Amino acid sequence: MIANLPTRPSSLIPLALFAMLALAPIIATASDQPFWIEFFARVMIYAIAASALNLALGMGGLVSFGHALFLGIGAYAVALPAFHESGNGWLHLLLCLSFSGIAALVTGAISLRTSGIAFIMITLAFAQMGYFLFVSLKQYGGDDGLPIGQTSRFGPLNLGSPLMVYGVAFAVLALVTWWIARLRVAPFGMTLRAAQQNARRVNAIGLQAQRLQLAAYVISGMICAVAGLLLANLNAFASPSTMAWTVSGELIVMVVLGGMGSVFGPLIGAIAYLVLEEGLKGVTEHWMAIFGPLIVVMALLGKRGIVGLLQRLDRPPAPACSPGVPENLPVAPLEGAHR
């Protein structure tokens, strides 16, 4: 039993992070620091959104600069019914999943007719359209946003307290992480990753790569909207700024920083990004001048992100040559190497 426990840094550190997140509310309550409950709840919510983007970006190769649109849809799925005196959480969740799914299906089907820079710009344009749509809704606060008077209630479960949002966000993050780990080795996930490498070969064996990518994009948008629903309940506020292109950029940085295509990369990237940001804010008001170069340095040190650096630690050191054995012996070519 003990022999089967993970001992590699790339496995131990993510598990340690989950353990830290599980203990954080207890430590924050015991030390009378409720701020840390709200802060780490926000970290987990962004980790959920980054995990959703990782499905499209890291596994599907779709560089979406518009995932903030789905985050905003999830937030307004809570704010608009609450404005009309409805705090039914099941209604909020239904609106969140249905509208984000429809939006992802329509925008994804159009965007996937292009690729490369054109795909990035079209997803960005759709997110900006959503942003300006909600800015124009003056009866719902417009650019000033909309306070949420009634948070989501799922029967006896009410997301009106940061601690309750924290518990739900932790459960959702754990579920999404476990699901993505299973998806990576499932036929759909393996085919999706193959389409990222070479879509023509996937099409040649009878599978339609574009349909797989569209399915991944829709699922990704719906998961991201759930993160928006939790964020709206945590802040008791919804704002069009949630749909700004800068939010999409932050999610991309979290995924790249943690490690694209990996299971724990979005969680590690979200923690590193937000903890570093919060720490620098407490040191200087010019924190952005330090934060930007640090992100660039961290990205340059590991092309596969922080997870890539941890995986390097998994590799045992190369054995030294035995005494008396020359180091530059000729190596026979592998069989079939020139085929």
Q: Tell me the strand order in the biggest sheet.
A: 1-4
- Stretches with pLDDT under 50, minimum 5 residues: 324-339
Question: What count of structural domains?
Answer: 1
CATH level 3 topology:
ABC transporter involved in vitamin B12 uptake, BtuC
Quick one: how many beta strands?
4
Average pLDDT confidence is 87
Task: Sketch the major β-sheet.
Answer: 2 strands, antiparallel
Account of the protein in words:
By secondary structure, the chain is mostly helical. The protein is 68% helix and 2% strand. It has 13 helices and 4 strands. The chain has helices at 9-30, 35-59, 68-83, 89-111, 117-136, 162-185, 187-197, 199-204, 209-235, 245-258, 265-281, 287-301, 305-314; strands at 146-147, 153-154, 157-158, 237-238. It has a two-stranded antiparallel sheet. The protein has a two-stranded antiparallel sheet with strand order 2-3. Helix 2 (35-59) runs parallel beside helix 6, helix 4 packs antiparallel against helix 9 (209-235) and helix 11 (265-281) packs antiparallel against helix 12 (287-301).
